[in-house]
Amino acid sequence: MISQQHLIDIQDYSVDEIMEILDTARSFKEVNDRPLKKLPTLRGRTIVNLFLEPSTRTRTSFEIAGKRLSADTINFSASTSSTQKGESLADTAETLSAMNCDLVVIRHRMAGAPRLLARHMDAHIVNGGDGKHQHPTQALLDAFTIREEKGGFEGLKVGIVGDISHSRVVGSLVPLLKMLGATPYVIGPATLMPAEPETLGADYAYSLDELLPELDVVYMLRIQLERLENAPLPSLREYALLYGLDTERMERMKPDAIIMHPGPVNRGVELTAEAADSERTVLLDQVNAGVAVRMAVMYLLLGGDSNGIAA
Length: 311
Ligand code: CP
Description:
By secondary structure, this protein is α/β, with parallel strands linked by helices. Helices cover about 35% and strands about 15% of the residues. The strands form 2 sheets. Strands 7-6-5-8-9 form a 5-stranded parallel β-sheet, covered by helices on one side. Helix 1 crosses helix 5 (about 135-150), helix 1 (about 15-30) packs across helix 11 (about 285-300) and helix 5 crosses helix 6 (about 170-180). The protein binds phosphoric acid mono(formamide)ester (CP).
């Protein structure tokens, strides 16, 4: 059992609670690998996926996760909800609350939207990504994947590369890695770093090539073209030359280092096609872990405990 009502900021969770999520996800991953994947554990529960920004992986995996646990899942997108007609988030929350929803997953362009939702409804709230702030289930599925690949976290050097200042993945992954005993580094051009990078709580560097041979995990971030303001990059081609992962850079990585990316990939920018499709790249393992981790989050928030998974 975890003592949390919501999953909004990863720092709200203790290391024990994080480990309980990862261990529960491990059990669900085994269920997901079977021909019959459905469990009755959340039968009668209602889960709403309120995705007011585009998403493929997060929205789909929350929906699959809810269905695999036998919950009733309902999806809203920006184009099909009354937010399109100007309804406020607070009014949307109170409307969903009146329908007795048990858990709401929200993605929103505004940092703090999940917290606002939590103030207006009794349901459990899960942050599916809010602006540039946090994406806690992404960080959890990344941690799950790292543990599967590396056996643990202690002493691992994880380089998080690219568009640091616009990344909600950084907002959750840096504190989570530190909690688990790994050492995160944020690496990118000065124009894509916050003005005070030390506030991120990680070591930072402007050169990928200097740190690359030391890293156990090379985590490439997506360049968030939709959030770039005032063109802080001279060109994507120049970015790819300095920070993109290609065959030549892969050869300079530790032999057992892995490549991660939250998706979607801008091929030819963060990763060449050879890097994206290489055997050291675990992108699809991350996506696979996403379903199990999201099953674990919903199950534990709705009162399940890790000993009670009816297999
Ligand atoms: N990683 C991630 O959040 O992907 P989506 O935008 O497709 O959900």
